[in-house]
Amino acid sequence: MKTSKDLNLDKEVLRVSLYNEASPTDYQLIDWQDRALAFDRLIFDQEAEGNYLPLIWDDRQYNSFGLPAYVGDGRLHNDGAQEAVTNIAAIVSASLLGEDKSEGEDYVSQLSAFFSEEEGIILNNPAGSSETTSMWYLLYPTILFAHASDLYESNDLLREQLLTAIESWYQAYLVMYDNGNPDFDYTGFNFNTNEPYRNDVWTEPDSAVGIGLLMYYGYEMTEETKYLDAAINTMDYMENYFGSPLYEALMYFGPYLAAKLNAYHGTTYDIAGFMDDNFNASSIPRGGWGSIIGQWGNYEMNGLFGSATDGGGFAFSMNTFAGAGAIVPVAAYDARFARSIGQWMLHLASNSRYYFATETNDENQSCTYFNNDCADIEDSIKYAIPYEGIRKDSNGRTPWFGGDPTVYGWAETDFSLYSGAHTGILASLITATNIEQILRLDLNATRFFEDENYPTSLFYNPYQEEKELIYEVTSAGEVNLFNTLTNEVIVSNVNDSVAVEIEADRALVIVELPSDAEVIKEDGGYYVSNQLISTELIAVAVSGIEENESVSGKITLDVEVVANYETEIAEITLELDEHTLIFNENEAVTFTTKDYRSGPKRMRVGIETTDGKTDHTYLRMQFK
Questions:
Q1: What is the Cα 6 distance to its own chain's centre?
Q2: What does the mean pLDDT of the chain come to?
Q3: pLDDT band for position 457 (50/70/90)?
Q4: Burial of 602 (0-12, 13-18, 19+ CB in 10 A)
Q5: Half-sphere exposure (Cβ direction) of 569: Cα atoms closer than 13 Å
Q6: Hey, what long-range contacts does 125-129 have (CB within 8 A, 24 or more apart)?
Q7: Rounded-to-10 torsion of CA 371, 377, 382, 388
Q8: Strands, DSSP E only, in 552-598?
Q9: What DSSP character marks residue 65?
């Protein structure tokens, strides 16, 4: 059981490992930036002409702008009914792609309409109230508001309102934390009575993640340790929650916050577990909610987010785009997840094109199949605004591109502005490279409230052979390329482009550092000018039996720690059927199947190193 310095530090995301192929079967990368910018131009065009256009109106009652949730939505021109998940997301998306939404008409300042002076929080509707609004419809708009505030940090009013909202949520946190007896498994929180409530229909336990993220943003802005303590306490609650707490979208930020706390504050959260909570379609409060795998008709669905069970499956464009923005930056803090994130995003970037009417067969779309007016809908709408979702089966078609609005009478079409408002979040992450299917993922694009980070990018090679990637430098001046999986400079003194080898079915995470930068190793981290750029990483590796192998008798496992630095194993644990076996580095790691009942088993193999790092993996077996 020796340690080894090896590139294979990959941490598996189970749902991603179940894809049939490393590459999508019908790969195509649309121009995501162009789609997002076309959406921005269309929805803010007050002079647009055509059926259902324009989509924007002046809300004079709340001194803001209004956007409907859907094309053909009856709430058009209904002051105060517009939603933050549309309006604020649209500002964030456009701004991530370089559009300044404060120039000309200042749409950024108009986001203040979503701040409630009475309750001291951000609401999803200017005319709304916390009294009847569920947790995610309160917390997610506040997260979007925070991102807008960070993108426009000179807007003092937004910053002041954000800090007020964060403090309001801190007071709500204190109520639900209950002096160390935390319970965040509620439907909503009434800020007028300062009480959480349950509606006896559903609860949203992943609200703890949303609150924790806001608390951490508060800490980054103010350096008040009470916010950091609250963020850690909410994540402690999440780690101890039995099963997946995913309700809608807040859990997407769980792996990111866990990775950030681990990197900066020495916590040891199980990032892999939080990833699985998002992907595995095993949600407790909302059964089947997670990531889609497989093929529906002639369309591959791998990587899309939504419900894996509703009607056989129902993927949502907003959740897919928002999930990508929340989860991709995890690899900036923990490169062990780079391969899984890279493979997932390769599928997501290709398969998400099916949300758009221009990318699928007309006969499978709700617009063209049923609605005679659909032929009159402007091409600009079909190009820029996605359908709300994709059902596996509906109306005798597999799959069915549409959504809920036409089913429940919410709108005349299923074209979703609240979903399209998130397109720029996805687009900000993705750049094509010289090799088709090897994407450059920007790990900085959706990292908020940090000092300017050195350019950091993830590349994944889905091919079965090594490829020569042309790396394009984005910094001014000469740089060194630092690989965070090995914590080594792989190319020095480059200022334009350079060839970089990327192994088959492997990932790279590259940070651009000034060529004269001194990399300092301290307390398990690698720093340049006091900025953390990478960490020491370990992963447990197990051999001796194959996954799902049938076993009997005495079994010996070969357990080792794979690391990008020198370390040793202090302890190994095997957890099986509520029994725990503990071994030291010099002992043979063995167990006997006769000590357990026969049937399928899932063993947890954990290690602790002599310097206090921990990791674990799971091994599935059939006991004879």
A1: 27
A2: 95
A3: very high
A4: exposed
A5: 27
A6: 125/80, 125/81, 125/82, 125/83, 125/84, 126/59, 126/62, 126/64, 126/79, 126/80, 126/82, 127/62, 127/79, 127/80, 127/81, 128/80, 129/192
A7: -50
A8: 554-563, 569-576, 579-583, 589-592
A9: E
pLDDT at site 585: 85
The CA distance from 247 to 209, in Å, is 11
**What angle is formed at CA 407 by the lines to CA 131 and CA 38, rounded to 5 degrees?**
85
Q: In a 3-state reduction of DSSP, which class is residue 303?
A: coil
CA 510/CA 494 separation, integer angstroms: 13
The angle subtended at Cα 516 by Cα 511 and Cα 521, nearest 5°, is 60
Give the pTM.
0.96
Give the whole-angstrom CA distance, residue 57 versus residue 256: 36
Cis previous bond, 405, omega within 30: no
**Are the C-beta atoms of residues 130 and 157 closer than 8 Å to each other?**
no
Question: Which region among 97-106, 339-348, 368-377, 378-387 has the lowest average model confidence (pLDDT)?
Answer: 368-377
State both tokens at 1: 């059981």
Over 80: is that where the pLDDT of 31 sits?
A: yes
On whether the CB atoms of residues 469 and 439 are closer than 8 A, the answer is no
Look at the block and give the residue holding tokens 């059981």.
1
The pLDDT value given to residue 239: 96
DSSP 415-433: BBHHHHTTHHHHHTTEEE-
Residues β-bridged to residue 605: 574, 617
Categorize the per-residue pLDDT at 126 as very low, low, confident or very high, splitting at 50, 70 and 90: very high
Cα 587 to chain centroid distance, Å, stands at 40
Residues 127 and 133: their CA atoms lie apart, in Å, by 12
Measured CA distances, 209 to 122, 188, 219, 454, 578 (Å): 17, 14, 15, 27, 28
